Amino acid sequence: MKKTNVVILHTDEHVWTFLGCMGNQEIKTPNIDALAASGMTLDTSYACNGVCVPSRACLMTGRYPVGHGINCNVQNLPDSERTMGHYFSAAGYRTGYFGKTHYGGHDDDMARDGWQESFIWLDQYNTYLRSKGLNIRYPEGREIKNPEMRFWNVGTSNIPYEHYFEKVIADRAINFINHNKENPFLCFVGNIAPHGPFSPPAPYDTMYDPDRLSLEPVYEHELENKPPAFVRWVEQNRKYTSEQELRIYMAHIYGLITLVDDQVGRIVEALQKAGVYDDTMIIFTSDHGDFSSAYGIIGKSWCMDDRLVRVPLIISHPDYRDESRSTSELNENVDILPTILDYCKIKIPLAVQGKSLLPLLEEETKFHKEAVFSNNYFYDADHHLTQSMIRCGRWKFIQSNDFKGELYDMESDPREIFNLIDQPEHQELINQLREKLLRWHIEYSGTTVNDDAIEQCWEVRSNFYDADKFTG
Question: Residue 371: how many CB atoms within 10 A of its CB?
């Protein structure tokens, strides 16, 4: 049987439109664009949560936040949860994880999550910096200060390119590929960029002229009929960023993305030189987005805006690299794990809640999912916020615990300016979407499933559900 490998190239806080292949004419991403030209661009991909740990936990486990229970950045995955590292190492694959983890797993012992080789943030990287004689603590903070920025640490890194995080983890991934070219492998490359620190090294720090970059338009009534928590967030953050500061921020974000793009090119070249490119599925994606000048702010928050929960996704299937393909079929980041398991002919466990994209990639079908979902939950002494989203066709419905709801027509209003929740002609649609969202919560909440335990159930062993074989 032909050996098959998987490489996942992952960014952090990457707006889905910040790629040349997504129509952005200001950013330079030739290597990621080349991946798109030899693969399928899935341009309606959603993260199942809008912040790092919950979203990454979804990708790692193939399970929704309501299933694995991770809803914020300070939680850890329960020991009962299995990750892609577990599944692939159990199937005889060599597994390597290089870069940012932040999925609620075991950073102190990556082998517990099935990763046989690893080089991860932040302790290992800081140890590396010291070993190179660089007395710099990453992530850099107050020492990075552009005088034109009042509040944000945006500027040129003190770490030279040769030792910058993205370059170092790409080096580790390339070394892993070269040492495992005779074995089937899974390689995960977790870039921190373009997430902060917003401090690219030279020459990426001056690659983009802030005055030549476009900003998102700000609309006069864009905060009308929005959830109170979101309005408070935007109004508070608008105090800290002027138009010129947004431009400087965008120039550094673009520089970081181009830095990542160069590493993508190096890794693809390494696959080709190792003779395994034609046997390797390559996936490029991210965990969530960023406002990046929308509403006049930067960052992320308690919100289901497409700028935050819609993510880039490019899959280069080795058997379908003759032409560029794209699809607008709805999909979620929980679908990535079952896709790579399916591609590598590893049984998809019952616990996995996502759906394999392989039939879509291999052109066996043009349909993937009727609807996709995202969920967010936050509480502290002063706040208790829950929010869930369903995207179904052109419609996007969001239900919050402190608001009547939001309905957007994503075809006519892709920037989600006009909330249609109060329009009488949409009430039947709203009721249908609200019911679908509720049924999603009921079906997937807290559903930890152990395949071995299921096989031992009396109902299964006794053929209870088969009238012709019942042995009770």
Answer: 16
